[in-house]
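Hello,

Our lab assistant flagged a job as stuck in the queue for most of the afternoon. It eventually completed. Since we weren't sure the result was trustworthy after the delay, we are filing this so someone can double-check. Below is the sequence as submitted and the structure that was eventually returned. Let us know if re-running is recommended.
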Amino acid sequence: MSNKILVIGSTGKTGSRVFSRLQNKNVDVRPGSRSSKIPFDWYDDTTWVNALEGISKVCLTFYPDIAMRTSEGIIYNFAQVAKKAGVKKIVLLSGRGEAEAIACENVIRNSEMAWSIIRSSFFMQNFSEGFWADGIESKAFVIPTVKAKEPFVDIDDIADVVVEALMDSKHDGKIYEMTGPELLSFDEAISKLSHALKSDIQFVQVSMEEYKNMLKEHQVPDDLIWLITYLFAEVLDGRNESVQNDIEFILNRKPGSFDNYIQKSIKAGFWKNQTIVQV
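-- returned structure --
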């Protein structure tokens, strides 16, 4: 029986890390992206069957985010195709405190395939590889007003957990929450970055309407504007203001701190236009 794994989103921040880790373990793994030799596109279901041929397990990340309003229907259809193709297990990367994400989780849980759910906090890497990186580079970090603190999590920890869930059946039927070891406000996170980069990064909070107008001026697509609005207006309301120990439980080590993430990112060459302070 095939033990081949399909990593959907293999060129993304999380999927690329999962894919490389599986390759390093000499696991039979297939990349799943629009640019793959066997392409996979969430918005073209004619690509699904070929991508799933001979696949036993799937690492499922949804693009651009599982909180999108269309995600539940698409993932339901995918689960039916995956089950028919002979897939035995799905590890789903989900989000914390998101009703849309929970709906997608329930689709996978009710799919009659084995499953593991990995619920993630906001990625630390959003400050270096995601949509907040420009604000760090330009020294003007602008977000909508938010009072809640967030347990930002290192994607490297998430990738390690996903690999464990894919490789070991003891994680079947489990829901895990990925958090970093501390709660930080956005202001505190920017202060840490300012210190490490020896850069006066302005932290600016604006109204949601101002922020939406700013995104429109930068020609951000409407569906992404909706997503960003949803995340700041609802998910960052304090519901996720807690630290969990699932990473330590699974990996037998502490999750990476925000300070360690900053130093690791500096060594990797991010924020090249800034003056660096090694600590």
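-- support follow-up --
The delay was a queue issue, not a problem with the job. The result is valid. The radius of gyration is 19 Å. The first strand starts at residue 4 and ends at 8.
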